[in-house]
Specification:
single chain; alpha+beta; 20% strand; elongated
Length: 1001
C-alpha cells in the first residue's frame, strides 16, 4: 500500500537500511490509505510541546494497538464510473455516512475506494451497496493480491504526429482487457500503462498499439526485475544460440531471454538479488569458449537511440527531397523569368506538353511517392482506424496537387490547343517544408527532456571494483563499466570521485557532497555503516562501499522515473486541446472542400463580376489552390504540443532545482494557489530541537537531574526526548555514558513519559500530563512556562515523586529566510496561515517572528485537514506545506500538497510536490515556476489557435478579391511547420527559468 511503503527518500535522507522499499511512484490525487488508521491520538507536530504531540512514532504505535483491540478492518473496492474529484467526493461521503466507518479514501484515477471500518457495525456488502446507491459500480477486491499484480508498463511509440494519434493509441489501450489506465504523451512519444498482469501481458499491449498503425518498443514491463541488452560480437549460429540460451537460463534469477540475431543483441530479464550483468557476460563468454564476446549494448539507452534515429531519418528525407525539389522550384518560379531558359523550358515535347512540365513531373514523383511514403502509410492507418490526423491532411493536399498536375500535363500531351497549368512545385515543396518542420520539431522536443539526461549523467561512467579473497581481504581491483555493478559488490571511491552506486560504507571515512540529490550544501561526514547515494561526490577520504541498490533500484533511477512519470501525466488543461483535436481534422477536410466548391462555383456563375480571376488560371485551378492551402495550414500539431512540452520542461527544471512536481495536475493547481497553510515543526522551523535553558525548582545537582530525565527519555524516539538526551550527554566526559535503569516505562502519545529511575517516579511532559497525573504545578513553574512560550520556546515539566522539580526549555530554531519567504508570498498575493499542534504561546511567538498573522494552534491532524477544507469552501485554492505523518491528511486534502523532502515518507507520498532540499524558499520557487509555466501554456494556445483563426481565412482567399493576395500551398505548409516549432521553442525558453532573485542561487 502506498502510505505504508517506505519511500526512497527515507533512505536518502535518514540512512535507511537495505530493507527499505525503493518504489517511488507518481501518486494519484487521492493516495491510498494506510492499512491501519492514521493515529488520531496525535495532537500536534513532532517536536512540539505544551499540548503538542509527544511523538509520531509513539502515536502511530498507540493508534495501531488501539485499532487491533477494536478489530478494525480494511476493505478495498474497485469503483467504475468516476470521472472527477466531485465523483470521488460523492463516494467518500456516501461511505462515511454509514455507521462503523472510521475513515475512507477514494482514488479517482485508479478507480478504487479504500475503507477502514468496524465489522461489528457494518459489512463490506453494505459499503458496496452504499457506493452503488449513488450511481457507481463497485466490486470488493483483494488488495494484497491486487497490489502484487498491478504493474506500470512504459512503451516508446513511433509515428505519432498530433493529438489525434495519441487519442487513437490511448483509446485502443484503454479498451484492452486488464488495462486500468493508459496515458500517451506526444511530446515524449511514450505511453504509460497501468495494467493487471494476470489478465494481459506487456507483449499484448505492444500488439494493441501496433494494430492502431504505430510501432511500439518496450521500455519496461514494470515488473520487479532488471532488464539488460547485451551486444554479442562473433558469428552466431543455431548451435551457439542454443548454448547461450541454456547457459544463461541456468543462472539463478534469470527470468526471460530474447536473442536478436540481426542486431546481434541479447535481451535478458533477471532478478538483481540473484545475478547481475557481469555474471551474465562471464557466462556467455565462458559457455562459448571465447568465440563470442559480450558487452553492454550501446543502444541500451532506448529513448535516446530512437530519438536520434528519428532525427537522422527526417534529416536524410529532407536532404533527399531538396535534391529533387530545388530543380522543381527553379524551373517553375525562377527560370521562367530568364529569357533564354524560359524559351527552352517552354519548348513542346508532345503536342502542348513542354519540357519544363515534363521535368517537373519526373522530379516531383520521387518526392511524392518515395520520400513522402511515410505520409501515405500514416494516412492509411489513420483512416482505417477512423481517426484522421495530420498525415491525412498532408496526403490529401499533396495528392490533389500532384494528380491534378498529372491530369493537366497528360491532357496537354494529347491536345493541340490545351494549355496546362501544373502544381508539381506545390506537392514537392509542401513535403519538403513539412519534413524540415518535423526535423526541427524533433530536435526541439529532444531538448525538453535534457533535465532527465543531466540527472542520469550524475552517475559515473566507470567504477573501481575491489576483488576479495575467501577470507575477505582485498587482493586486487579493476575498473569496470558502472552499469556492470552488481548487488553486494565492493566499490572503491577515491577523493574527488563520484559514488558509483547506492550502498553503505564498510571501510574508511570521508565527507560526501550530496547537494545534487538532497540539496544539502555542506558535505556530509561518512564513516563505517553510513549510507551513500550513487552520483554524489566524495570530497577527501577513500571509501569502500558495498552496493545495495543498483540499476533501476538506485535513488537516482527512482528520481528519474518519478520525473518521467510526471512528464507523462497530462494537465487538466490539455483536455481542451484533446477535445478540439478529435473533430479538428474532419472539420478541416470539410472546410477545404467547401472552400474549393465556393471558388469553383464563383467562377462558373456568369453575371457576377469575377474579373479579378487571373486570365492564365481558370476557376477550378484557383479553387484547387485555395482548398489545398486550407487543408495544409490548419494542421492541429501546434495545439497538441502546447501543454505537454511546457509541462515536460517545467518538471525537468523543477527536478534540477530539487523540486519534484508529480505531474501536470500538480503544476496546474499550484499556479492557482492563493493561500498556503504551513506546519510549524520541520517546516517553518529546522525540526531539530535543542535544549536552551534549564530552571531547577528544587536544590539538586544539575547532572543528577539530567541523569534521571535522560534515563526516562532515552526510551522515547520523540525529537524532544532526543534533544534532552543529547544535552545530558554533554554533562559527562565519557562518550558512551550509561544512564540509570528505567523501570515501568510508560509513554503517553502527545503528553510525555513516565518511568521509575533510582527509586524515584520520574514524569516528563507537558502541563496537561502533569495535571492528569495528579501533580500540582506551582505558580513559579506556570510563570516560567509563560515566559518560555513568549520566547517561542517549549517548556517541558519534570516531576519526581509527584513534585515539580524543574523545567527544561527546548527551542526549535526558525529556518533561515522564513520571514523573507512569508513576505515574498504576500507580494505574490498569497496568504500564509500557520496550523500547528503546539501550544498557543509558542505558536504566536513563531508567527510574530516569521510574519504570519493567522495562526491555529493545538490542532490535531484531522483538524489540520478540516481547516484546509474550510479554506477551500471559502473559495481559496489551498496549498499545504508539511513534513510529518500528522500532516498527511492535510496534504491530501489540500489542492496542492508540498512535502519537505527531509520529512517522513508518508508525507512525501501524500504530497503533490516534494521539496527535496527542505528549503522553505522552494515553496516560492514551486509556485512561481508553475505560474510562469501556465503563462507559457496560455501563450502557446493563443498562438496555436490564433494562427488557425487568422491563417485559415487567408488561405481560403478572403484577401484575394481586394488585394490579389494568395497563400500558395507550399507557403501554407511552411507556416504550419513553423507554428509547431515555434510552440516548442516558446516552451523551451522555460529552461532558462531562474528562481525569484531574492532566493536565486
Amino acid at each position: 500500500m502506498a502510505a505504508s511503503t517506505r519511500a526512497i527518500f527515507l533512505s536518502c535522507f535518514h540512512g535507511g537500511g537495505a530493507e527499505v522499499s525503493r518504489h517511488l511512484a507518481l501518486r494519484p490525487r487521492y493516495p491510498s490509505m494506510p492499512r491501519r488508521p492514521r493515529p488520531t491520538a496525535v495532537a500536534g507536530d513532532a517536536g512540539e510541546g505544551g499540548g503538542s504531540s509527544r511523538g509520531d512514532l509513539e502515536a502511530a504505535k498507540g493508534a495501531a494497538e488501539k485499532a487491533e483491540e477494536e478489530e478494525e478492518k480494511v476493505a478495498a473496492f474497485e469503483v467504475n464510473g468516476m470521472s472527477c474529484a466531485a465523483c470521488a467526493g460523492s463516494v467518500e461521503k456516501a461511505v462515511k455516512r454509514l455507521p462503523g466507518i472510521h475513515d475512507a479514501a477514494v482514488d479517482v484515477l485508479g478507480g478504487r475506494a479504500q475503507v477502514l471500518f468496524y465489522p461489528a457495525f457494518v459489512s463490506e456488502e453494505k459499503i458496496r451497496e452504499a457506493i452503488e446507491d449513488i450511481g457507481f459500480e463497485a466490486k470488493l477486491i483483494n488488495e494484497e493480491v491486487r497490489e502484487k499484480n498491478i504493474l506500470v508498463c512504459r512503451l516508446h511509440i513511433k509515428g505519432m504526429t498530433c493529438t489525434s494519434c495519441t487519442n487513437t493509441v490511448e483509446s485502443a489501450l484503454q479498451a484492452f482487457p486488464g488495462v486500468q489506465r493508459a496515458s500517451v504523451a506526444l511530446a515524449t512519444e511514450e505511453a504509460e500503462i497501468r495494467y493487471d498482469r494476470r489478465i494481459v501481458a506487456a507483449n499484448e499491449l505492444i500488439k494493441a498499439v501496433e494494430e492502431t498503425g504505430f510501432e511500439a518498443v518496450l521500455i519496461t514491463t514494470g515488473e520487479d526485475r532488471n532488464r539488460i541488452d547485451l551486444k554479442i560480437d562473433g558469428v552466431l549460429n543455431e548451435r551457439l544460440i542454443m548454448i547461450l540460451e541454456s547457459s544463461i537460463q541456468a543462472l539463478p534469477g534469470v527470468e526471460d531471454i530474447k536473442v536478436d540475431t540481426e542486431l546481434h543483441k541479447i535481451t535478458i530479464s533477471y532478478k538483481p538479488d540473484q545475478t547481475g550483468p557481469r555474471d551474465l557476460i562471464e557466462v556467455i563468454e565462458s559457455a562459448t569458449s571465447g568465440d563470442i564476446t559480450a558487452s553492454i549494448y550501446p543502444e541500451a539507452e532506448g529513448r535516446e537511440h530512437h530519438r536520434y534515429g528519428e532525427i537522422k531519418r527526417y534529416k536524410q528525407s529532407f536532404l533527399w527531397s531538396l535534391i529533387f525539389t530545388i530543380p522543381v522550384f527553379l524551373t517553375s518560379m525562377v527560370f521562367m523569368y530568364i529569357p533564354g531558359l524560359k524559351d527552352g523550358l517552354e519548348k513542346k515535347v508532345v503536342n502542348m506538353m513542354s519540357i519544363g512540365e515534363l521535368l517537373r513531373w519526373i522530379l516531383s514523383t520521387p518526392v511524392q511517392f518515395i520520400i513522402g511514403h511515410k505520409f501515405y502509410s500514416g494516412a492509411y492507418k489513420a483512416v482505417c482506424h477512423g481517426s484522421p490526423n495530420m498525415d491525412v491532411l498532408i496526403a490529401l493536399g499533396t495528392n490533389t496537387a500532384y494528380f491534378y498536375s498529372v491530369y493537366s500535363v497528360l491532357r496537354a500531351a494529347i491536345s493541340e490547343n490545351y494549355t496546362s497549368t501544373d502544381f508539381f512545385e506545390t506537392s514537392s515543396m509542401l513535403i519538403s517544408f513539412i519534413l524540415l518542420g518535423k526535423y526541427l520539431e524533433i530536435l526541439a522536443k529532444g531538448k525538453t527532456s535534457e533535465a532527465i539526461a543531466k540527472l542520469m549523467d550524475l552517475a559515473p561512467e566507470t567504477a573501481t571494483l575491489l576483488i576479495h579473497d575467501h577470507e575477505g581481504n582485498v587482493v586486487g581491483e579493476k575498473e569496470i563499466d558502472s552499469r556492470l555493478i552488481q548487488k553486494n559488490d565492493v566499490i572503491k571511491v577515491v577523493p574527488g570521485g563520484k559514488v558509483a552506486s547506492d550502498g553503505f560504507v564498510i571501510w574508511g571515512q570521508s565527507h560526501v557532497n550530496e547537494s545534487m540529490i538532497t540539496g544539502e550544501s555542506r558535505p556530509v561526514a561518512k564513516r563505517k555503516g553510513d549510507t551513500v547515494i550513487g552520483g554524489t561526490v566524495n570530497e577527501n577520504g577513500v571509501l569502500h562501499v558495498r552496493a545495495t541498490f543498483v540499476g533501476s533500484e538506485s535513488a537516482l533511477a527512482q528520481i528519474v522515473r518519478l520525473v518521467e512519470s510526471a512528464q507523462m501525466a497530462k494537465a487538466p488543461v490539455q483536455k481542451f486541446a484533446d477535445q478540439i483535436s478529435r473533430v479538428f481534422v474532419p472539420l478541416v477536410i470539410v472546410l477545404s472542400l467547401l472552400t474549393w466548391l465556393v471558388w469553383f462555383l464563383a467562377g462558373r456563375f456568369h453575371g457576377y463580376p469575377y474579373s479579378w480571376i487571373p486570365s492564365s488560371m481558370d476557376s477550378f485551378q484557383l479553387a484547387l489552390q485555395f482548398g489545398i492551402s486550407v487543408m495544409v495550414i490548419a494542421c492541429p500539431c501546434a495545439l497538441g504540443l502546447a501543454t505537454p512540452t511546457a509541462v515536460m520542461v517545467a518538471t525537468g527544471v523543477g527536478a534540477s532545482k530539487g523540486i519534484l512536481i508529480k505531474g501536470g495536475q500538480a503544476l496546474e493547481s499550484a499556479h492557482k494557489v492563493d493561500c498556503i497553510v504551513f506546519d510549524k515543526t520541520g517546516t517553518l522551523t529546522i525540526g531539530k530541537p535543542i535544549v536552551v535553558n534549564t530552571r531547577l525548582l528544587k536544590n539538586m545537582v544539575l547532572r543528577e537531574f539530567y541523569d534521571c530525565v535522560a534515563a526516562a527519555e532515552d526510551n522515547s524516539e520523540h525529537p524532544l526526548a532526543k534533544a534532552i538526551v543529547e544535552h545530558a550527554k554533554k554533562l559527562h566526559s565519557e562518550e558512551n555514558h550509561i544512564w540509570p535503569e528505567a523501570k515501568d516505562f510508560i509513554s503517553v502519545p502527545g503528553n510525555g513519559v513516565k518511568a521509575k529511575v533510582n527509586d524515584k517516579v520520574v514524569i516528563v511532559g507537558n502541563k496537561s500530563f502533569m495535571l492528569s497525573s495528579g501533580i500540582d504545578i506551582p505558580m513559579e513553574a506556570l510563570e516560567i512556562l509563560a515566559e518560555e512560550e513568549e520566547k517561542a520556546q517549549t517548556g517541558i515539566i519534570v516531576a519526581m515523586d509527584q513534585e515539580v522539580v524543574g523545567i527544561v526549555s527546548v527551542s526549535d530554531p526558525i529556518k533561515p529566510n522564513a520571514h523573507e519567504v512569508i513576505s515574498y508570498l504576500k507580494s505574490m498575493n498569497v496568504e500564509s496561515i500557520m496550523v500547528t499542534g503546539d501550544n498557543w504561546g509558542t505558536a504566536n511567538a513563531i508567527g510574530r517572528e516569521v510574519g504570519i498573522e493567522k495562526i491555529i494552534a493545538e490542532a490535531k491532524p484531522e483538524q489540520k485537514a478540516e481547516k484546509v477544507k474550510e479554506l477551500q469552501l471559502s473559495g481559496k485554492t489551498v496549498a499545504m506545506v508539511g513534513d510529518g505523518i500528522n500532516d498527511s491528511p492535510a496534504l491530501v486534502s489540500a489542492d496542492v500538497g508540498l512535502a519537505i523532502g527531509a520529512g517522513t515518507d508518508v508525507a512525501i507520498e501524500a504530497a503533490d510536490i516534494v521539496l527535496m532540499k527542505s528549503n522553505l524558499e522552494d515553496v516560492v520557487t514551486a509556485i512561481d515556476l508553475s505560474r510562469k509555466t501556465f503563462f507559457r501554456i496560455r501563450m502557446n494556445y493563443v498562438w496555436a489557435l490564433g494562427y488557425n483563426v487568422i491563417g485559415i481565412p487567408i488561405a481560403a482567399g478572403v484577401l484575394f478579391p481586394s488585394s490579389r493576395f494568395r497563400l500558395p500551398p507550399w507557403v501554407a505548409g511552411a507556416a504550419m511547420a513553423a507554428s509547431s516549432v515555434s510552440v516548442v521553442c516558446w516552451s523551451l525558453l522555460l529552461r532558462y527559468y531562474k528562481s525569484p532573485k531574492k532566493f536565486g542561487n
